[in-house]
Amino acid sequence: xxxxxxxxxxxxxxxxxxxxxxxxxxxxxxxxxxxxxxxxxxxxxxxxxxxxxxxxxxxxxxxxxxxxxxxxxxxxxxxxxxxxxxxxxxxxxxxxxxxxxxxxxxxxxxxxxxxxxxxxxxxxxxxxxxxxxxxxxxxxxxxxxxxxxxxxxxxxxxxxxxxxxxxxxxxxxxxxxxxxxxxxxxxxxxxxxxxxxxxxxxxxxxxxxxxxxxxxxxxxxxxxxxxxxxxxxxxxxxxxxxxxxxxxxxxxxxxxxxxxxxxxxxxxxxxxxxxxxxxxxxxxxxxxxxxxxxxxx
Length: 297
Known about the structure:
- It is built from 12 helices and 3 strands.
- It is mainly α.
- The protein has 3 domains: 1-44; 57-174, Receptor-associated Protein (Up-down Bundle); 247-297, no CATH class.
- Strands 2-1-3 form a 3-stranded antiparallel beta sheet.
- A hairpin with a 5-residue loop joins β1 (3-9) and β2.
- The two termini are 36 Å apart.
C-alpha cells in the first residue's frame, strides 16, 4: 500500500498536512472527506522505480531532503530494536513513521516502506534517498539481508551511527568556544577601528605634532576599514561562496585536503580522525559480510 502526502482543509478553516497510506489517491481523498476534511492536494511519496524515467529518477533521489545525524541514529536504533523483537520489516518501518512528528522523517520512511511493500529489498528502499542513507548504510543493509542476519547488522549500524553522532557533537562543542571567542575578538577590533580610533584622532590632530609610526599605521588601517568595510565584507562572503563551489570539484577538493594534511596541528588531527573513521567503517562492513574488495571501494 503506497503512502501519500496530503494537504487538506479542516472544518475550522485551517490547513492540515500529513502522510497517510491508501490504495490510491482517489481512496485517500475519500478518506479525508469521510473525516470531515476537504482535500486540496494529494501526492504519492514515491512512485514505483519501474515507472521512473531518468529525469524522474533524479527527482526521486532528491526528494525528502536530508536528516540530521541524531535523527538517522534514532531511526536506525528503532529499526534495530523492532527487527530484533521479531517485527516484520514493513511493520517496523510503519512504526517509525507513526512514532515521529517530523514531516521530513515521515516522508522519507514512508517512501522506503512503499518500496519494500512493492517487493523491493530494504537496501533498495534506502537507495532511493542517497543523501540520507550513504553507501555504507546501503551496502551494510544489503549484506545483512543476503546473510539473513538483518537484525544483527542493524544493531551494528545503530551503534555506529550513535557513536558517530556523539563524536560529531563533541567536536562541535569543542569548536564552539574558540569560534565564539574569535568572532568576538574580530567584532571588538572592528568596533575599535570604526568608532573609537576616529575620536582619538581628533585629539591627536589638536596637538599638531607628528605621531609615532605605529599610531599612523593604526590610523591608516582605521580609515581603510571605514571607507572599504562593506566592500571587504562583500568580498569575504563572495570568497566563501566561490570556495564552497570549488570544493565540490574533485580536483580542488583533493588540493584542499592535501593542504590540510600539510598543516602542523590540523594535519595530524585530520589524519587521526580519518584513520579512525576508516577503521570503524571497514570493521562494520567486514563484520556484516560485505566482501573486503567491495568494502574498500
